[in-house]
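User: I'm curious whether this sequence folds into something compact or stays loose and floppy. Could you predict its structure so I can see for myself?
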Amino acid sequence: MRASVITDRVRLRCKKRYLWLGAASLTREILVLSMKMRGIGLLMIAVFTALPVLATAQTMVDAKESAGTIATTSPAHVDVTYTRPTQKTRLRNYVFDAFGPYPLVAAAAAAGIGQAYNSPPEWRQGAAGYGQRIGSAFGIAAVSTTTLYGLADAFKEDTLYYRCECRGLGPRLGHAVISTLTARRGEDGHRIFSFPALIAPYAGTFTAVYAWYPGRYNGKDALRMGNYTMLGYLGESIAMEFLYRGPNSLLRRMHLNNGREAPSSGSNR
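Assistant: Here's the prediction. I'll summarize afterward.
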């Protein structure tokens, strides 16, 4: 009798536990369902709220596209003062810039500096050493200039220097610095970043290091020497910006105008 009573109590507790678990499960499902319904409701509210905004945005986009279509139908602004140099002009500039008096003078000056510092020491001093140094400097300049003009022709870039139409030391100096690594492209002469201008100074020094420099020189020396060449290009740009080369200048009378400088009548800076 006592055992049956205990068994009934256990069954009753189990039933209560099952009922509690069932109620908890049902409650959880109801909560999940209500959350889902709430989320759907919020989503619907958000959608209906966003519809006017989206419609307004679409209207604005359509208006912008229409304006852009109207704008593109009008003739584009073309720089009428820019005249792209001909192939004959580029060839003449290349010959002057690579083998003219300026690279010879620059090579002689660089050889003098190398002679003073006895660099490279393997070439020693005296006339023979100076001859090696001036030949090396001239060869570096020739390779760099050939790389500049060759790559610029492949990329359809104009390598001429166009002086700034601005006034003041700061703007003109900034223009000279920017022009060292930029070029012109297209019929309108828009300015772009020039990879040939970036590569050319290092093409000459790498060629020198691995072609005729002493064997102890490596790529680091070529990079260092290329940096000096780049500084030389920068100095050349500054000189072309600030030195007067008008029709009555001494350089024009002596036919020593820099081949990379564009005529002032066709410039757009």
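Summary: Residues 87-266 form one domain. The first strand starts at residue 157 and ends at 158.
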